[in-house]
């Protein structure tokens, strides 16, 4: 859901999406991470790109908890370039509690992606009924899907990918519902909370 939001945002504001991860921004060499961070933000500025940094908690951890000087330097560099960046920046995390408090002052908006409730599930299922042309059989399963409150969009996307891997290019409504129920059972009846 979070990455798809960044993709849609890039489509709306026109520029391309530039995706960065901790793997692309962190270096094992002294000073290397700082150079990679600075060059990534510079490139995003030059390209006019929406910059997405996924799983940012691995790079912007709370400085009061850091023990190594190079980690502190990375956080300081990243906070500095975030502060100076004039483009559109999307930072994603599943652990906002681990972020350095100074980051909040540098962000214009903070969004929380919650799991889907019954109305959202009904709407999403209706769009899937139309997309896969399930007709009455898909509509008949709508209530059962709504009982799976707590799903995240990523749970449904993952279930659809699993069905494709199993050879279902156009999965049936029953197959998708079965896949979602199996996922819920595997997680002890609870879906994870999306942030």
In short:
With 195 residues, this protein is mostly helical.
Q: Biggest sheet: strands, sense, closure?
A: 3 strands, parallel
Gross morphology is elongated
Strand order of the largest sheet: 1-2-3
Subunit arrangement of the protein: single chain
Provide the helix percentage.
40-55%
Helix run count: 9
Uncertain segments: none
Approximate strand percentage? 5-15%
The rounded Rg comes to: 20 Å
Number of DSSP-assigned strands: 3
Averaged pLDDT: 85
The class by helix and strand makeup works out as mainly alpha
Cα end-to-end separation: 9 Å
Plain-language structure description:
With 195 residues, this protein is mainly α. The chain is built from 9 helices and 3 strands, in the order H-E-H-H-E-H-E-H-H-H-H-H. It has helices at 2-13, 22-25, 32-47, 69-84, 118-131, 135-140, 142-146, 153-165, 173-186, and strands at residues 17-20, 50-53, 89-91. A 3-stranded parallel β-sheet has the order 1-2-3. The longest helix has 16 residues, at 32-47. The radius of gyration is 20 Å and the shape is elongated. The N and C termini lie close together (9 Å). The mean pLDDT is 85.
């Amino acid at each position: 859901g979070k990455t798809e939001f960044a993709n849609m945002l890039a489509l709306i504001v026109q520029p391309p999406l530039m995706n960065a991860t901790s793997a692309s921004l962190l270096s094992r060499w002294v000073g290397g991470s700082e150079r990679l961070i600075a060059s990534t933000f510079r490139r995003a500025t030059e390209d006019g790109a929406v910059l997405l940094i996924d799983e940012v908690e691995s790079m912007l951890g709370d400085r009061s908890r850091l023990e190594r000087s190079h980690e502190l330097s990375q956080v300081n560099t990243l906070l500095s370039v975030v502060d100076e960046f004039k483009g559109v920046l999307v930072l994603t995390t599943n652990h906002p509690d681990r972020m350095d408090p100074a980051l909040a002052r540098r962000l214009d908006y903070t969004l929380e992606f919650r799991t889907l409730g019954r109305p959202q599930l009904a709407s999403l299922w209706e769009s899937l009924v139309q997309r896969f042309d399930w007709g009455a059989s898909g509509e008949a399963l709508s209530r059962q899907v709504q009982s799976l409150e707590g799903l995240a969009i990523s749970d449904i996307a993952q279930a659809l990918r699993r069905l494709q891997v199993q050879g279902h290019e156009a999965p049936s409504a029953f197959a998708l519902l079965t896949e979602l129920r199996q996922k819920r059972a595997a997680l002890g009846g609870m879906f994870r909370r999306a942030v």
